[in-house]
């Protein structure tokens, strides 16, 4: 009896000795996942990303070296983040392991600072920006390239998404360029705004009331403080004026002037100047009147006097001051105060008082009124 012996080969299924470590990398780097294993060769190696088998090409390469295998990913981007798995197979079985790749997202502003910011003196400023990117993110604030820190008038907050810079009371010293910079391992981004703090206009000199002569020019001038430039508008009786042959506007720095050319009766009234800038407005008023020529409101009347009695000639007048009053007896005898005579002009009343009438008192009296309105009035009375 003869015995026959047949060789029996034991096949060891694959198993991992070292699995790939999870990685977190910055964009545009090359990533290698490597694993070692044991088992009976030959082996078939496959790599997957999120259950999709990877094929060698420009963006990845797989290799097998003895009892180790690797996956190279080139110039990785955000889309490469995910779960990767390595599958090893032989005739005895299959083994699989997984790992993860995080490609860090560089910071990006989804809400930038405004290009410019204008604030009113004393107001509270809040600059806000929103960012995305892989944590941890670090945010810094700068003014004119100098780093800022919290203080009595300033506070900065950041919750890894929204960054805020607060200035509690703005002043001229806060003017400048403010930059928000955010960074992580994947990169740095920044955005800037220019802050301008302005003072609203306020009139400190209002127009002096004007009494002008017909046909002459008149001007209303006012001065203001605040941050120039100002927008100046003039109004008459609440209607806006436009520059024309009648009206000329002059604005220089903190001074504004309205010139009214060739005064007419219709130019009399109330005028208003309105000044504004980016942070506020103010207004002031002034009046224009035409100078009135003298007019007798209550006239003198003829009268008869008894010798030795007091004689009073009295008239009421109106017109723009200053006004001069003169009395003439007969044709050319200009009367002045004397021992027997008193001339007064008070409260729009002109008076010629003769203490004791005599033979020289009789005659024709003329009262003449005159001002710079260019006209005069006279009244004759016989005594």
UniProtKB/TrEMBL annotation:
A Pfam family the protein falls into: I-set
Tagged with keyword tRNA processing: no
GO terms of biological process kind: sarcomere organization
InterPro entries with a match to the protein in the record: Ig-like_dom (IPR007110), Ig-like_dom_sf (IPR036179), Ig-like_fold (IPR013783), Ig_I-set (IPR013098), Ig_sub (IPR003599), Ig_sub2 (IPR003598), Striated_Muscle_Regulatory (IPR050964)
Keyword Repeat tagged: yes
Record-level GO cellular component terms: M band
Keywords: Repeat
Domain Ig-like: 14-102, 107-196, 201-289, 293-382
Domain of life from the UniProt record: Eukaryota
Membrane-crossing segments per the record: none
Protein name (database record): Ig-like domain-containing protein
Taxonomic placement: Eukaryota, Metazoa, Chordata, Craniata, Vertebrata
């Amino acid at each position: 009896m003869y015995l026959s012996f047949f060789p029996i080969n034991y096949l060891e299924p694959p198993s991992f000795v070292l699995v790939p470590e999870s990685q977190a990398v910055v964009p545009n780097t090359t990533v290698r996942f490597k694993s070692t294993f044991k088992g009976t060769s030959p082996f078939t190696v496959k790599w997957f990303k999120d259950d999709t088998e990877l094929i060698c090409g420009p963006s990845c390469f797989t290799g097998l070296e003895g009892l180790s295998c690797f996956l190279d990913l080139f110039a990785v981007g955000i889309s490469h983040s995910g779960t990767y798995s390595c599958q090893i197979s032989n005739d005895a079985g299959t083994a699989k392991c997984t790992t993860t790749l995080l490609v860090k997202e560089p910071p990006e502003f989804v809400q930038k600072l405004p290009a410019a910011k204008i604030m009113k003196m004393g107001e509270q400023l809040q600059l806000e920006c929103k960012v995305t990117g892989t944590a941890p993110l670090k945010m810094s604030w700068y003014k004119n390239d100098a780093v800022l820190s919290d203080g009595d008038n300033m506070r900065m907050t950041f919750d890894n998404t929204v960054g805020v810079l607060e200035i509690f009371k703005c002043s001229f010293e806060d003017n400048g360029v403010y930059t928000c910079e955010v960074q992580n391992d994947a990169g740095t981004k920044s955005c800037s705004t220019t802050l301008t703090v302005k003072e609203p206009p306020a009139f400190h000199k209002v127009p002096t009331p004007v009494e002008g002569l017909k046909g002459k020019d008149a001007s209303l001038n006012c001065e203001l403080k605040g941050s120039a430039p100002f927008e100046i508008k003039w109004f008459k009786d609440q209607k806006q004026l436009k520059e024309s042959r009648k009206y000329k506007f002059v604005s220089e720095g903190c001074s504004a002037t309205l010139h009214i050319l060739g005064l007419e009766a219709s130019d009399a009234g109330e005028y208003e100047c309105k000044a504004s800038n980016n942070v506020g407005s103010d207004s002031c008023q002034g009046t224009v009147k035409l100078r009135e020529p003298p007019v007798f409101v209550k006239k003198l009347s003829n009268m008869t006097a008894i010798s030795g009695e007091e004689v009073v000639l009295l008239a009421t007048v109106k017109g723009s001051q200053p006004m001069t009053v003169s009395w003439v007896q007969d044709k050319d005898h200009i009367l002045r105060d004397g021992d027997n005579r008193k001339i007064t002009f008070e409260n729009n009343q002109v008076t010629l008082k003769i203490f004791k009438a005599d033979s020289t008192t009789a005659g024709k009296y003329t009262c003449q009124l005159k001002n710079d309105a260019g006209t005069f009035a006279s009244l004759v009375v016989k005594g």
